[in-house]
Give the backbone structure.
Amino acid sequence: MLFGYDQGVLGAVIGLSSFRRDFNDPNRNQEGIIAGIYDIGCFVGAILAFMTADRLGRKGSICVGSWIMVVGTILQTSATEQIQMIVSRLITGAGNGMNTVNVPIWQAESFKSHNRGAMLIIQSALIAFGHPLSTFMGLASRQAEPSSFGWRWPIAFQGVFLILILCFLPFLPESPRWLIQHGRVEEATEVFARLSGKEATITDAAILTERDDIVASVEEEKKLGSATWGEVFTEGPNRNISRVLLGAGPYMFVIFALKEVEHATNLHCRFNQWSGINSLAYFLPITFERNIGLSTELSLIIAGVLGIQYFFVSWLPYFFIEKVGRRQMLMWSAGACSFCMVMIAIMLKVGTVPCQWVFVAFCFLFFDVFSLGILPVSWMYASEIMPLRTRNKGVALGVSSHWLSNFVVVYVTPAAIDNLQYKLYIIWAVLNASFVPITWLWYPETARRSLEDMDEVFRHERFGLTKTRSPGTRTKEGGDGVIRRGDADVEIFADEGKRTPDS
């Protein structure tokens, strides 16, 4: 929820007269810097996360990231000049960047394979709820205008979430895989039992089997020594660089279409976040004001209502993500997002009053279909495919690519809204459409497979086209341990613990 709130809060207050007065009425370029520097901070935090997660643990690293965010929030709330706001948002972003690396890893290493995706849906739904909360907070704060309390209070409210995190974090279990990696096997066994339900005990056969599988995997990796950055960027039998590239894919897409944005905004960038979600999410009220001429108050109300719908729809994948799988959800979501962006561009180009309201309707629909696939999968996929040995470094690279591309989106959006107008949404439509064949060709399915199962998938598939296109067979009872790979199956756990292809 804090993540979603942070993304939306500046867009909710940047149009307030008190904010613009206190920061000398920032121009479009300055708006982009104030908003986008947060993502640069997140990029730095994601890179720093690999230094803390393996040493301090997932919980310890999240604690450090949260305290950094506390400092940044205090500095943002007390800001009186643009430079202080920029530096404080950089600091806040660094803390959030650390957390966005460690939270997905912590969750992926703790949840069971049969419901891991469904549990991660809760995270993405709470992210979605943060957006309308920040919007309505900004709307309520307008009543305090022209006092600077109108923009300071919504920013200070981030501290409420941070206090809750820091209070409850000590009572949550550490990642059992991290515990095993650091020789704390007994603690890991207790965590497995705790995560399996009230009736589970540390002597249950299923818990001991799960523990022993991970212990064996860790012992095998330890024989190779500590993972280096050089290993992350080499292929090898574990296909490390392939996993890094696939993990970064849902976060970022390299595009040539940004050339038109460069001409319009006088920027020179090569990367962008391909879906366009944050082009809308960060500046949704401003988008309604500047694209179709709505008032500030009405724009905030519509943005808040959209966010509430976004939150409720984002819960729906909880009921089918394990059955349908990550690949199908990504492809259908990307295709539908592309269609919405095409319609948004057409309505904006025509420009009549009815078309303006159709523009708003397709913004609603875009957020809905985004939340049904791209939103949940993008935050879970990298942590599901990385091997334990290089997981922290690999996920850090994937998340940092997200934040770097996110910075470009946020930086160019205020100027792009004015200069590109409907053409901006055509760019997003093309990029969303391109991800459908990319997902089909290269992304293996991770649903209902343990993290160790995915190691076997990558060991038995060469770089390039994937054959693992259907969900696995693991259930609450354990499944048959067979990975479905098109016309060929790979037996993950043979009777005597061997791992051999059966075809």
